[in-house]
C-alpha cells in the first residue's frame, strides 16, 4: 500500500497525451496532480489512473478491476450546451433521488475541471482509498464534508495547498498550458458509484445527474454506456478521452 505525502496514493500510467482518438488536454492538472502530489516510495501504488482505449467489450476487458471512478474528457460544443440547458430544465421539474452520501462540488475556478473531477473521484471513494494523515485532500474533504456544493467551491478557492499545486502543474508540460481565465472547449466530468447508483458529477451543473442502478462489477460498463451517449451527441467529434481509476 503506497501512502502519499501529497494528496493520495494515486499515480498516473500515462504519457503527456490523453487520447481515445486524438486530442490535447486543456485541464492539464488531471495528468500531473496525481504524480505531483504523491511523493512516491519504493512500493507500488494500489489505485491508478489508466487509459480506457475504447468502449467495445474487448477493450473494456483490458482495464484492471475493480474500477471505482471514470473520468470523461469531451468537447463542449453548441450541441452539448443546448442539451445541458434542456437537461437542467427538465430535471429541475423532477425529483431526482440523490443520496446524501454523494460528495458534489461546483466548479468556480477557471480551467480546473481536472481538479474538480479528481476531487469527485476521490471524495466519493474514501472507503477504497487510503490517505496520508497530513494529506491536503483528506483535510479538504473532511473540512467540507458538511458543506453545500457552492460552499465547497468557495472553500476550494481559498485552499492554498490545492490551488498552488493546480496552478503550478497546469503551467508545466510539453505544450503551452492555458491560463486559469482562458476559455477552453474541452471539459472533464466524473462518474462514480454511490450506494449502487451511477452518478455523473460535473462542476458546471447545478446538481449530480443520476443514471440509474449499477454495481461494482458492472460500473465500468455502465459508465461506458453513458459515455457513448456523449459521443453520439456529437458524432463528428473525435476529442473524447476516458480514464479509469482502478486497482492495480
Q: Could you state the oligomeric state of the chains shown?
A: single chain
- Poorly predicted regions are 1-29, 35-43
Q: What is the global morphology? A: globular
Alpha carbon gap, first and last residue: 11 Å
C-alpha-based Rg, rounded: 17 Å
Strand content is 15-25%
What is the total tally of β strands? 7
Order of helices and strands: EHEHEHHHHHEEEHE
> Strand order of the main beta sheet, please?
1-2-7-3-4-5-6
Derived structural class: alpha+beta
Query: Count of helices?
Result: 8
What is the makeup of the main sheet?
A: 7 strands, mixed
Average pLDDT, to the nearest integer?
80
Site (Transition state stabilizer): 107
Subunit structure: Preferentially binds diubiquitin; the interaction does not hydrolyze diubiquitin but, in vitro, inhibits the hydrolyzing activity on other substrates.
GO molecular function: cysteine-type deubiquitinase activity
Keywords: Cytoplasm, Hydrolase, Phosphoprotein, Protease, Thiol protease, Ubl conjugation pathway
